[in-house]
Amino acid sequence: SRLPTAPVDLDTVPFFCLLPPPMKLSLLLGLLPLASGFSPASLSPRALTSLRSDAAASDDAPPAPEPAAPAAPSAYDIFSDPAYVGNSDFRGKRFDFDPLGLAAAYPPFVPWFRECELRHGRTAMIAVLGFIATDFMRLPGEMYSFEAIPKTIDAHDALLKSGPMYQLLIWIGLFDLLVTAPAAKAMGDGFREPGDYGWRWFAPTSKEAFDVKRDAELKNGRLAMCALGGIATQSIVTGHGFPYV
Q1: 151 phi/psi in degrees, rounded to 5
Q2: Cα(7)–Cα(2) distance, integer angstroms
Q3: Cβ neighbours of residue 90 under 8 Å, at least 6 residues apart?
Q4: Which three-class secondary structure state does DSSP give residue 171?
Q5: What does the H/E/C string look like for 48-115?
């Protein structure tokens, strides 16, 4: 006689248990190749021996030398460039003046620095001449007279009220837009030397004489920039015109 069994809920029985034995055996045999793909591959004794010898050799070998650090690039020395001019004092002796190290920090901007130095030096030379001359003579017109502007140092504020300073600003702005900007672009592209606007009507023909004049222009421009600052300061401090004492 059979033992009494409890009723079975087929919904809770796994699908594999409901299959007949032949189908279970076929399913297991079909899954064996898939399972072998996840097992480590077997190595031959010769391969194992080779691996052990390679590992021992790597332990005994000296460590590989570390790659040498790349050499730091040397700082740019503008004063050692044979094409550089202007590094001499008024005695003619060598004078390398770059206290902030701008040439070494920004080598691509060295031509622009020279362009600015030449432009400011040329402007200062004209300004020194004009500052002194207007203490003795004036342009025609009531707004430029000694009664309207007693001292040259007063001309800036007075001419701002009457308007000529604004005209000067417009003309300088047009010059920078139409001349300075294209010239700076040509200089950056290597088609033009700093400060060269092609105005060489009185320039020497020989290179040696031209280099002497170019060096003189730099030195006189530097002196004029210092002189203009001194003239303006003395004019304000003393309240007098030339000789500003």
Answers
A1: -125, 155
A2: 14
A3: 219
A4: helix
A5: HHHHHHHHHHHHHCCCCCCCCCCCCCCCCCHHHCCCCCCCECCCCCECCCCCCCHHHHCHHHHHHHHH
Give the total residue count for the chain.
245
Over its length of 245 residues, how does the chain's per-residue pLDDT go in tens digits? 444 444 545 455 455 555 556 555 565 556 555 544 454 445 455 554 554 555 555 555 556 666 665 555 556 677 777 677 788 777 878 888 888 888 888 888 888 999 999 999 999 999 999 999 999 998 898 888 888 888 888 888 888 888 888 999 999 999 999 998 999 889 888 898 888 888 888 888 888 898 889 889 999 999 999 999 999 999 999 988 888 88
d(CA 93, CA 207): 21
Please provide residue 159's backbone torsions phi and psi, each rounded to the nearest 5 degrees. Answer: -80, -15
Q: Give the SS3 label for residue 42.
A: coil
Contact between residue 135 and residue 141 where contact means Cβ atoms under 8 Å apart = no
Which residues lie closer than 8 Å to 245 by C-beta, 6 or more apart?
A: 234, 238
- Picking from 203, 206, 205, 186, the residue whose alpha carbon sits closest to that of residue 194 is 186
Contact by Cβ (8 Å): 220, 129 = no
> 94 has which bridge partners?
88
Residue 69: both structure tokens together: 């650090």
**Token digits for 148?**
């309207």
Q: What is the DSSP letter of 134?
A: T
